[in-house]
Amino acid sequence: MTTAPGPGPSPALHRTWPLGRPGAGIALDLGSARTRAWVSGRRVILDVPTVTFPGTGATYPIQRGTIVDTPGTARMLNRLLGHRLPRFGRPLLILVTPVLGGIAYRAQARTAVDVLHPRSVLTVPTARAVAVAADADPACPLLVVDIGAHLTEVTLLTEGAVTDARRTALGTSDLDSNTPPSRITEAVVAMVTTMLEQDHTSETFEALHRGALLAGGGALRPDITYRLADRLRAPVQPVAAPHTAAVRGAAKLLQAARAHPSARAVTDPLHFR
C-alpha cells in the first residue's frame, strides 16, 4: 500500500447541505486498478490495488469502470477500511463515480459500501472531483481528461455540472510494444473532436481554448501529455498529483459538507452534479 498527502483546505459552499452533525467521513475512489480512500482525521490517502482474495487466488472486482463483483468489492473495502473506522457511529461517505457509470454503477457501488455502515452516501462524478481538487473556476467551461489505467474519460463541465462526456475502454495498463501511447492520445483527440462537432454552443471550444485539465496516472506520462497538447493544438495542464486528484477533490467536498453550519439530519442521499 502506498500513501499520499491528504487534501488541502475545504472550498466554500454556496448551497445548503442536508447532512448530519460532523462525525467520521470517508472519501472513496474505486478505480479499476487502484482504490484510494481518505478517512477524516487522518493525514494520508490510502492507495491499494483493486483486488480481493476470495479463495486461493486474486480476483479483480472492478474492470473497465464497471463493478463486476459487488460482494468482492465489499470484502476489499472491509479489509481496507473496516478497522480504521470508529466502532460506534456511522460515517458520511462521498464516492467518486465514472462520469458515464450511470445508475447501475451507483447502485452496485452503494451496495458494496454498505459494508462500512455509512449514514449517507453521496456520489460525485470523477471530473467534478478533479475540478474541485484543482480549485478550477466553476463559472468557466472546463474540459477534464482523466486517463486511468483501464479507462479514459473526457468531460465538459459547465458551471460545475457535466454537460457532455465521452469515454473509451483504453488506459495506461494497455500500453505495450503493440499499443503505443499515441493510441490514447488519438482516442482523446477523437472524443474532443466529436464533442466540438456536436456542441451547438461555444462551450467546448472555449474550454479547449483555455486548456484541458489532465488527471489520472496517464497525466504523469510526458509521452502522452506532450503529444496531446500538440494534437489538440491547445494547452493541457496536469493537475497536481493527478493520480489522486479525484479522491482529494471528494475529500475537500467531504470536509466542506461536514463543517457547513447549516448541516442537519440526513433525509435522502445527495448526488453532486
Could you give a short description of this structure?
The protein has about 270 residues and is α/β, with parallel strands linked by helices.
Largest sheet: 6 strands, mixed
User: For this structure, what is the CATH class of the largest domain?
Assistant: Alpha Beta
Strand order of the largest sheet: 1-4-3-2-7-8
- The CATH architecture designation of the largest domain is 2-Layer Sandwich
Give the fraction of residues assigned to helices.
25-40%
Order of secondary-structure elements: EEEEEEHEHEHEEEHHEHEH
Low-pLDDT runs: 8-21, 261-270
**Domain module count:** 2
Alpha-carbon Rg, integer: 18 Å
**Inertia-based shape:** globular
Termini distance? 31 Å
Would you mind describing this structure in some detail?
- There is one protein chain.
- Helix content is 30%, strand content 24%.
- It has two domains: 2-128 and 244-259, Nucleotidyltransferase, domain 5 (2-Layer Sandwich); 137-238, ATPase, nucleotide binding domain (Nucleotidyltransferase, domain 5), CATH 3.30.420.40.
- The strands form three sheets. It has a six-stranded mixed sheet with strand order 1-4-3-2-7-8, sandwiched between helices. A five-stranded mixed sheet has the order 11-10-9-12-13, sandwiched between helices. The chain has a two-stranded antiparallel sheet with strand order 5-6.
- Strand 2 (25-30) and strand 3 form a beta hairpin.
- The protein is of the alpha/beta class and 273 residues long.
- The model is unreliable at 8-21 and 261-270 (pLDDT under 50).
